[in-house]
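Form 7-S
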Amino acid sequence: MKNLVIIQTAVPDYRKGFFNAIENALDDRFDLYGGDFYFENSVKSDSIISKKRIRNHFIFHNKFLFQTGIWHLLFKDIILVLEMNPRILSNWIFLIIRKIINRETVLWGHAWPRKGAFSKSDKLRNLMRLLASKIIVYTRQQQFELKSKMPKKIILAAPNAVFSSFKMEFSTTNNKFNIIYVGRLTKLKKTFFLVESFAKEIHRYPSKTKLIIIGEGEEKNKIKNYIVKNKLSQRIELLGHISNNEKLKDLYFTSFFSVSPGYVGLSIIQSFGFGVPMLVSRNENHSPEIEALNINENGLFFETNQEDNFNNVLLQAFKEREYWTEKSVHIVKSCQKNYSTESMAETFIKLAKNES
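Output:
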């Protein structure tokens, strides 16, 4: 069995359970390398996660990245897992040289660029994929799609996860009235749209309903000023980043619905892990995790950028509170089956044990 080594730009707190699962299975045959920040510097490494620190050198206004502190791995006979991101220039050197000397190099990430499988930038990503020994993608749907494009390539799926199945819980209390958003506070995530939309029709929601916002990002001060200016501090809580699982659980357990006002990402899996359905903006360039959404079972769509439709859909859900509260147990059980850190880690563990 060869050693497994994973190199990451950053190792954020939501990856803790996943990397712990690999480490518990492989022990000293696993090494994790990571820098301090991602391309978006609101994504930071968690100091608690055990890793070997490397340096990220961002260039051209954070458009590209070159990593140092990893070059002793270049010729090693290990299973080396790199991010499938053409903007990481050092990864190209690893892929080319390790292919020439016949060393196993695995790419892990999104199958397609954010603009989709038919975007011009996929030509560059495809060249990267061709250099890899194997590819790991975030969803089974992406595995199927990429296998159709590259039938001779070994393509594996490790469905993106946040929690261990043992940490997924639900609450069936009828006292859930809040609306919760967890994620980056950025223009692409449209958090300010969420705040304005809720504030516009705040009088139509139950008086005990609060909008809870968890996260950091460029729009935090804008949101904070809006709350103060409109005297909404009793109904909108801006809590910053929270990584503690128990604190998150307590907040989700007070929440009737979570919301993704922009493109959906890993937060949808987190929400389902606590049994909370999600309201999602329909026409967005969503991340692959959107495949977890099952309309009328664990969530709903609203029409993108439409404040009235956002409120109408959510208020209608409030009228069906009993239905959605009873769905909590089914939402969690489905998430445990398909999106646990154990199942995600198993793909990498089998890779190291040559069972993939």
